[in-house]
Write a structure and sequence with these properties.
By secondary structure, the protein is an alpha+beta fold. The protein folds into 3 domains: 32 residues; 87 residues, Multidrug efflux transporter AcrB pore domain (Alpha-Beta Plaits); 68 residues. The chain has 5 helices and 7 strands. The C terminus is likely disordered.
Length: 198
């Protein structure tokens, strides 16, 4: 078999050369168009529902926001896990879907179910940014040992300076901050695509 292939290649040099050039051109094209990710996204489809209710204890947030949000969301198609966290002034409900779920359809279904939820006045539940857990790349906390910078000063610095600078970075989807007497200022930063060289 190998002798036959070698004999054929020696007798038909032009055909072999043309096939080799075609394979090389196809390889260069594939190299430039193939989507290669530094960190492939192996995470499940997920949606977060984030609700802020400043000034209220975690127990109030749990009873009046988290549980009313969880109840209608239990019926979303392809849902495998529903997790929630209630903090001081903040409720986060995370829905994790199976492999058959489509990201956009899942987000639309969650929005549809959220319209049925009755929340306290002036409180609105919002979907978290459309990103993958693999894309969440940065957590930071603002602290100061200088007594001149209290929590309000740090929060103002976060809102008016740092958040604007981070959002100006290419491929950053969202910067979400949360502040309080225990947490100071905590934010996360999620890009649409990221690589170690980018």
């Amino acid at each position: 078999m190998i002798r036959y292939l070698v004999d054929f290649a020696l007798r038909n040099k032009l055909i072999v050369l043309c096939v080799g050039v075609l394979i090389a051109v196809w390889g260069v094209y594939a190299f430039h168009t193939l989507p290669v990710e530094a960190y492939p996204d192996v995470a499940d489809t997920w949606v977060q529902v984030i609700t802020q209710w400043p000034g209220h204890a975690a127990e109030e947030v749990e009873q009046l926001i988290t549980i009313p949000v969880e109840i209608p969301l239990n019926g979303v198609a392809h849902l495998t896990h529903l997790r929630s966290e209630s903090l001081f002034g903040l409720s986060v409900v995370t829905l994790i879907f199976d492999d058959q779920a489509d990201n956009l359809i899942s987000r639309a279904q969650v929005l549809e179910k959220l319209s049925q939820v009755t929340l306290p006045p002036n409180v609105t539940a919002q979907l978290g940014p459309d990103y993958s857990p693999v894309g969440q790349i940065y957590f930071y906390m603002l602290k100061s040992s200088n007594p001149r910078y209290d929590l309000m000063e740090l929060k103002a610095l976060e809102d008016w300076e740092l958040e604007k600078q981070l959002k100006s970075v290419p491929n950053v989807v969202e910067v979400v901050s949360f502040a309080g007497p225990r947490a100071n200022t905590r934010c996360w930063w999620t890009p649409t695509s990221w690589s170690p060289t980018g």
